[in-house]
Amino acid sequence: MTPTSTTTAPETQESAEPARTRPRVEGDREREILEAALVTLADVGYDRLNFDAVAGAAKASKATLYRRWPGKVDLVVDALQLMIGVEADRYPDTGSLRGDLIAQACAKGGIGEDLPLQVFAALLGSLHRDAELRDAIMTRLIGPKMAVTLKTFRAAQQRGEIGKDADLELLARLLPAITIHDAMLTGTHPSQERLISLVDSVVLPACAATLQRD
């Protein structure tokens, strides 16, 4: 039987790279590569993002990237984690829901920054088409991030700022949902004044309304 040869497109090779131990990149190079991945992602979108483009932007070799990240999904999710963070202790406890929400929204990597909105805009279409990307982002990024946000709303509930039977997940999604929607329509990130206005005119009244049902 005559053997047949098959060729695989470069992008398929990237996504099909087998799982392996993922050694860290030395020094600040890992951060530089992830930052280059974010900028490239915002510029070309997820579908056109590849290791060649990121390596060129970071002035690194593709071999360096492959040693650390088995595929594009892993690289992108690590870059997103660097950008927005998910650690609960990175935000101050101001003692009020208003103060906490403003501090989180206006923090580095928060929804008030331009790059995060550009990056998520570049990902939106691909999230609907790419189940691997969607599952990785939900598991490693959105889930942990929502857990941090819900901790803020539960603390407010315990202080009596939110009703005991309130849908905390719904309340927690209000600010990012409106902000991302506005950014998609206008192409600009919200100002600090806009974020504060949304907290005061939308989120806090919605929370206060839940107290009336108790």
UniProtKB/TrEMBL annotation:
<keyword id="KW-0804">Transcription</keyword>
<protein>
    <submittedName>
        <fullName>AcrR family transcriptional regulator</fullName>
    </submittedName>
</protein>
<feature type="compositionally biased region" description="Basic and acidic residues">
    <location>
        <begin position="17"/>
        <end position="28"/>
    </location>
</feature>
<keyword id="KW-0238">DNA-binding</keyword>
<dbReference type="InterPro" id="IPR011075">
    <property type="entry name" value="TetR_C"/>
</dbReference>
<feature type="compositionally biased region" description="Low complexity">
    <location>
        <begin position="1"/>
        <end position="16"/>
    </location>
</feature>
<dbReference type="InterPro" id="IPR036271">
    <property type="entry name" value="Tet_transcr_reg_TetR-rel_C_sf"/>
</dbReference>
<feature type="domain" description="HTH tetR-type">
    <location>
        <begin position="27"/>
        <end position="87"/>
    </location>
</feature>
<dbReference type="InterPro" id="IPR001647">
    <property type="entry name" value="HTH_TetR"/>
</dbReference>
<keyword id="KW-0805">Transcription regulation</keyword>
<dbReference type="Pfam" id="PF16859">
    <property type="entry name" value="TetR_C_11"/>
</dbReference>
<feature type="region of interest" description="Disordered">
    <location>
        <begin position="1"/>
        <end position="28"/>
    </location>
</feature>
<dbReference type="InterPro" id="IPR050109">
    <property type="entry name" value="HTH-type_TetR-like_transc_reg"/>
</dbReference>
<dbReference type="InterPro" id="IPR009057">
    <property type="entry name" value="Homeodomain-like_sf"/>
</dbReference>
<dbReference type="GO" id="GO:0000976">
    <property type="term" value="F:transcription cis-regulatory region binding"/>
</dbReference>
<dbReference type="Pfam" id="PF00440">
    <property type="entry name" value="TetR_N"/>
</dbReference>
<dbReference type="GO" id="GO:0003700">
    <property type="term" value="F:DNA-binding transcription factor activity"/>
</dbReference>
<feature type="DNA-binding region" description="H-T-H motif">
    <location>
        <begin position="50"/>
        <end position="69"/>
    </location>
</feature>
